[in-house]
Amino acid sequence: MTFVEFIITYYPRFLSGTIVTIEQFVLASALCIVLALFAGLMKLSPRTSVRACATVYIEIFRGTSLLVQLYWIFFVLPLFGITLDKFTAGVVAVGLNVGAYGAELVRGGVLSVPTGQWEAAVSINMSPGKRMSRIILPQALVNMLPAWGNLLIELLKGTALVATIAVADLTFEARQINYSTFMSAQSFGSALIIYYILARCLLTPLMRRLEKIMARQIGRE
């Protein structure tokens, strides 16, 4: 069987797996961004207890394996009365893990805003909430976006691990096709190409476009 014949035969399964991978990516990214924003801002809190909570979350999920975290959420949490279906467990595990890395990007991005911007916002009596949302975060976001692009690519690749708990994503389908056909090069080569297209041909241009839009919004272009 040629590679073209292989693709024609199995493209429906690769397509369904790709759709599941995209769903995992979108949902895990949303969770990751929310967690990163809250944890990153909590790390900057003047309250020790708030900073401590954020630090515990960040250190645990940055310091342990994503695969082990995935197994804990799916296999161990039910022992404590918390049961998640395999799709949700995958989203939660990947989102929590990458969110911990994103929190440090948020913290660094906020700290990268020039001190004069903080002082100007204080001088016109802006409340802390308005100061952060209207002055600091828009500028911090522009500084963070290049690093976030790389992080989201890592998140996309991290979703491949959900195949280990039988989520029918792209990696799972490639593995199942390989089991039935023993055509390893074609099976995993197809998956490799699809992951590359998603990361480099779709996600990377999107993030670069977003960088330009945000830079224009705050007058850097």
UniProtKB/TrEMBL annotation:
Localization per record: Cell inner membrane; Cell membrane
Membrane association type: Multi-pass membrane protein
GO terms of biological process kind: amino acid transport
Keyword ATP-binding: no
Residue ranges of the TM segments: 25-44, 56-81, 188-207
Cellular component, GO annotation: ATP-binding cassette (ABC) transporter complex
PANTHER family: L-CYSTINE TRANSPORT SYSTEM PERMEASE PROTEIN TCYL, MEMBRANE COMPONENT OF AMINO ACID ABC TRANSPORTER
Family classification: Belongs to the binding-protein-dependent transport system permease family. HisMQ subfamily.
Full protein name: Putative amino-acid ABC transporter permease protein y4tF
